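My current task is to audit a protein record that another person submitted. I need someone to confirm that the token line plausibly describes how this chain folds. Take the sequence as given and treat only the tokens as open to question. This is what I was given:
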Amino acid sequence: MTPNPDDAARRAYWAEQMELGYELVQRTLTFEVRECGEGFASIPDAAAAAGVEMLFSQSKIAGGLDRVFFLRERLVRDVVAVGRAMNERGWILKIEDAYRSLEMQGQLVRKPEVFDAVLRKCVWENGGVLPPVEFVARRALVMVANVPKIGTHMSGSAIDVSAFRRDDGTEVWRGNAYLEMSERTPMRSPFIAPEDLRNRLEITALLEAQGFIHFPFEFWHFNQGDALGHLVRDLPAPARYGAVHWDAKSNRVTPCENPLTPLNPLDAFEREITAAMQRAAARQ
């Protein structure tokens, strides 16, 4: 079989981006965080109170767990401002995801649809051969944040977004819909159409105008005030937001006791790889 030059280019680009992501993650792990203790606020309630039209995902995050459209109080005001700017632009901001507890994030890593996608990309990157478990865990660190310190959803400081047009309800197309795991996923992927890149960058500009940064390796993810956000913006001061346990009744946060401990250790990855391979065989 003749090698496909385009496929080789895609694989090389993907591997490069994943390694750059891994380097950023490693820097994030050592960045100082001084948890400020700020509570959470509801994005839907704030948007409704401000008269801002906004959409929210209706899908489950993993298993039977509902998505939690809450964020740190200060950041909710920024999200509403983004939504207002989009409305003025003729768009509607859709929040795909916001806060995730450690339990939610851990389950998301193991969610069959998510884990299968991660493993497929690892096998594809490795020339069709199943790579070692350590390689899969390395890639998962970038793609699905298997450590609390780097998972900005767990600090209540991140949102995943899409945008839709107010006049006809169609999506402002960015090359793929949320959630995509491929060489088209990085914000400036060369494998998307120019108009799709323009849409990505215009959406990004509206969020960055309110202080959010984009995670370079996912076109839908934006965060601020956490270790990752400070690193990307070259802010030397300690970050305000770290991974927390949130008590919704009291609106009190408790810092995660072990933010550097993987949510799913290597033996869990080994079990998930076996299960994923069994699912793949059953589909053939």
Notes: The mean pLDDT is 96. The radius of gyration is 19 Å. The longest strand covers residues 158-165.
